[in-house]
Structures are given as C-alpha cells and as structure tokens.
Amino acid sequence: MDVIRGKVRQREHLMYEEMLEVAKWMFQDDTPKGEIASFLTDLSLKGETAHEVAALATVMRSFALDVPAKSDIYMDNCGTGGDGLNTFNISTASAFVLAGAGVKMAKHGNRKISSASGSSDVLEALGIHTNISIEQTIELLEKEGIAFLYAPNVHPKLKRIGEVRRALGKPTIFNLVGPLTNPVSLSTQFTGINRPNFVMEYASVLQMLGRERAMVVSGPQGLDEASLAGQNTFVFVDKGDLIPFALTAEDAGLNYAPLEAIRGGNAEENARIMRTLLAGKESAYFDTVLLNVGIGLFCYGSAQTVKEGVDMAKDSILSGRALQKLEAVVAFSEQIKEVEVGQ
After folding, report:
1. FRET partner for 321 with CA separation of 20 to 30 A, picked from 20, 110, 167, 173?
2. Residues at the annotated binding site?
3. Model-level pTM?
4. Which residues are annotated binding-site positions for 5-phospho-alpha-D-ribose 1-diphosphate?
5. What is the CATH number of the domain that holds 208?
C-alpha cells in the first residue's frame, strides 16, 4: 500500500488493479482517517483518471446494500457537485419533471459536503423523509416512478469516508464517484461534472460500468449541470460510441441567462425556488430545469432531439404532473412518519 500511495505522491497514475487495492484499503474500518485524507488530497493534486474513478466506483458499489427493484429502465441524474457556484438544486428539481414526463427516476444523492445545500437537504426542506428503508424505497419507486436513495442509507461503509470528506471541505474523487454508485441497476444516466476537461474520460467510465445510453455535461465555469449561460460541453454514450458535442440554450429554443440568475441559498430557500418553478412560474430557474430535463429525455430515448425534450419538459410542468410527483412523494413520506410515530 505504501508503494501505491507513494506513486500518487509522485504524481503517477494508478493502474485499475492498483486503485482497486487502495479503494478497499480506504473502506477498512482500521485505516486511519488522516491517511485517507492525505491520499485523497494527493490524488486530487495529481488529477484523477478514468481507470481510477472506475475502480473506486466498482469497489464502492460492491459494498452498497442491495436494492432489488423490479426490472425496468431506470435513470439517475445525480451530478458530482463540487463546482462551488452556489446554484439551486437543479438535478433534484429536474428529477420531478423527468418523472412527470414518464421517466423512471432512481435519484442518488447526499447531504451538503462541499455545497450550501445537497440533494437530501433540500428534500427534507420540501417535507420528504430521506431516512427510509430499502423496502419503502422500492415501494415508492414502483408506485410513483421516482425515489431518492440517500447515500448513507445504501452505502453504510461511507460513514468514515464522509467524516474525512467533511473535514477536508473540498471536492475529492468521491464527488466524481458518487453518481456512479447507485445501487439500483441503471441502463441510462445523465450526469454533470465540474471538470470540462474530464468529460470524455467520465463518459468512458460510464461505458466501462455498462451504461447503454448516458450523457455527461460540464457547463460554463465548470457548472455540474447544463446552463443557460453559454456553451455546454457534452459526451453522449450510445452503446459502443462516445459522441462529443456542444450545446447552448439558444440551440434548444431557450434564452441566455447568466449564472447569477440561478443562484441558490440554503435548503429552505432552494425548496421555495423549486416549488415556485414546479408551479409553473417562468424564470431562469424554470428554463434551466427545462434545458436539463430536455437533455435527460433525449438521453432516456423519450425525445428524438433536445429541443423536443424541452417541449416535453415544459408540458410536464405546466400540466401539473411534475408538481403532482413532488406532492405524491411528500405524502408517501408523511405516511411513513405517521407510522413511525405510532410505533
């Protein structure tokens, strides 16, 4: 292990098998947290590779709890986070719109680690209970076509790693790996990363992990979502092909807006933003969700073009179906709380 860690300190990339070994070492209960922090810092300074990300994702997913959802075409739109741009929770809002458009959403997420409000933080502000059992998660997924998998619930081995990440307070390889470790079997995925120069490599990781169709995006200024604020960098995974392309808001029939127009705040502020846009109030927040959902619908195969997907996304919101999905998940959550209080 010292040899492998020494290679990283010397800014040498690891082979897939070497990263498998060091990943297992990080998840051992007796591995000192300070040594894990040092390794993660060295790895970040070196710059992670596709093989290192794929190896860590493979090990982390092997430790995840089993979520035996019935066979279907599930999608996740969890991003890496870590962009430091303090936008609202775009992918969480988009998940409800995607579900309203008929996509089966198994959304992976966590609390804030390097952001003001993580996915789980805003869900709780909306009144959604994130600490639910695997059985309840499957029931919600099958009943409403959308469920949220809170990372610590399905990755019990992450507890110590989470403590290390919070102490570091900055993005690590675990930001990159998080979206790749959904315990629900995914054939389709749309994810954003905060590194425009790593989009092709990340797409190759998704391909290595068996995604048949997937989309990776890095927005302007390294936003880990598609943005209205300029050119977005993409790679589309279509089975054996990796197809790079660029897209602006105007290409999808939407208007430019600066990143400042979609700033978020704490969980409560972001929950208000989300409810307002799902109620149909048009704004830069609304259009940002339309763009991301349009891309997601194209990736899922529901739309033939991103522009068609944007139109379908708008219909999901203005018809009330997206908001209905939110209310259904809130109601399900309240039922769980009532049962727990009564026990």
Report:
1. 110
2. 79, 82-83, 87, 89-92, 107-115, 119, 165, 224-225
3. 0.92
4. 79, 82-83, 87, 89-92, 107-115, 119
5. 3.40.1030.10
